[in-house]
Amino acid sequence: MARYSDAVCKLCRREEQKLFLKGERCLGPKCAIERRNYPPGEHGKQATFRRKVSDYGRQLREKQKARRIYGVMEKQFRRYFREATRRKGLTGTTLLVILESRLDNVVYRLGFADSRAQARQLVRHGHFDVNGRRTNIPSYDVRPGDVITVRQASRGNQYFKDRSQIIESTRAPEWLRLDLAGMSGSMVVEPSRNDIEIPLNEQLIVEYYSR
After folding, report:
1. Do residues 97 and 190 touch, judged by C-beta distance below 8 A?
2. pTM flag (> 0.90)
């Protein structure tokens, strides 16, 4: 399975904003944006003063930003876009709903991981059940009514013991329901655009793929 394996802080610097790819680190002084708020590379500082970005450039950057936030490779992202065009409703909003419904994102949103990358690793290692069945596919499409549970064999891990204390001070989005005592959560309804608090202009992504 293809995945990005370079330093993820470069991705935030390339987009010149925090994408929160490393969890708690992004909130502290070690965040790359706090230390070097300019694109990576030899001419990064000069790039800040480049000529005006074209419409295509803005569309490309927005698409890349969405891919990087959700940790999706180009081929899979394009497949999600095709799926969004087939469904009813606004294509851009539907695309974001599809991305938010990925199992790794739901695990992250419930608070079981600091970042989507960490959630993806936990899912791949088989720490979660979906509707009582072990599921290790990060891209699994979670539907309303599905219940995601930390497997009984994994609850003794120190990670999940510590995590339960952290989750107590957090709040899951309204479209999800968290049961901390049962170390589980469920999707109540599909998220609406207002529920997806991510700085993205999805219309630019639609324009990019509609060229």
Report:
1. yes
2. no
